[in-house]
Amino acid sequence: MQNYEFHKKIKLTYPECDIRNQIKLSGMMRHIQEVSGEHLEELGLSHVMLWNEGFVFLLTKVALQVKRRPGALEKLTIVTKPRAPKGVQSMRDVYFYDEAGEEIIYAQTAWVLTDPIEHKIRRPNELPYTIPLEPVAVDYELLRAKNKRPKDAQPVGKRVVRYSDIDCNMHMNNAVYSDIVCDYLPLEQHRSRDVAQYNISFVGEAKFGDELTVFRAQLDENTYYIGADRPAGDSCFECIIKFK
Fold first, then answer.
1. Quick one: which H or E segment has residue 25?
2. How far apart are CA 34 and CA 215, in angstroms?
3. Is the pLDDT of residue 11 over 70?
4. DSSP for residue 23
5. Phi/psi at 210 (5° precision)
């Protein structure tokens, strides 16, 4: 194993799974952020160390392709590989493999380096440490997909940001957005359909006490848009989710 990739073995738990005993989208997102952070720790770049030196990585976009959602008690191997930056974005791929070695979930992710307090963007080359990069180039077509709100999207509810939504960066954790997306989809989609693709952009931070206005539109038989505005009326997040 090269130092530009990191492997982690896990066993899924029941609380990570939904009504069909398959891993939730938020479960996938938690593992993506955890394995990415653990790789940095292995390289000597822990969250605390970076924070104390004025740096934090924030997730800005994720594109997931799902062949199969595993269930509780399944054993998986998660592999992550950082790749060459695109402008201010630090790119990282994450792969989920089952016990047979089959790739069942693939994620392309984009992160930005900021200061810990005001979250002002810093360029990747400002980090005074080297992160080994996977040398093979990747076409980030999945991440380039647009998640813009369609004109016929309608408000479908309000969601207040609660204490339990907030992480150590003092904003809503990225996994919680996925729970909001799922909460505002028709229940029948969860009961009878399998997720094929999930593409989310984190546009503006959601902080404690913010009341988000959630919008939804059905783009076709298999595809939905879900997004939300912050109290000032600007965008918080935008997502396209496609079912098989």
1. helix 25-42
2. 29
3. yes
4. B
5. -65, 140
Q: Count Cβ atoms within 10 A of the Cβ of residue 13 and give its class: 0-12 exposed, 13-18 middle, 19 or more buried.
A: exposed
Residue holding tokens 């339990």? 164
CB atoms within 10 A of CB 77: 15
The whole-angstrom separation of Cα 92 and Cα 62 is 10
Q: Beta partners for 78?
A: 8, 96
167 pLDDT more than 80:
yes
The one-letter amino acid at 110:
A
Long-range contacts of 11-15 (CB under 8 A, 24+ apart): 11/73, 11/74, 11/75, 11/76, 12/70, 12/71, 12/72, 12/73, 12/74, 12/75, 12/76, 13/72, 13/73, 14/72, 14/73
Phi-psi region for residue 84, left (φ > 0), alpha (ψ -120 to 50) or beta? beta
- Catalogue the E-assigned strands of 98-160: 103-114, 121-122, 154-160
Task: Give mean pLDDT, residues 103-124.
Answer: 94
Q: How far apart are CA 154 and CA 152, in angstroms?
A: 6
Is the pLDDT at 22 greater than 70, yes or no?
yes
Residue 161 to residue 182: CA distance in whole angstroms: 16
The tens digit of pLDDT for each residue in 134-145 reads: 888 788 888 887
pLDDT at 1: 63
Q: Are 99 and 74 in contact (CB under 8 A)?
A: yes
Average pLDDT for the chain: 94
Burial of 82 (0-12, 13-18, 19+ CB in 10 A): buried
- Alpha helix ranges (H) inside 53-193: 141-144, 174-183, 187-192
pLDDT tops 80 at residue 2: no
Which amino acid appears at position 75 of this protein? K
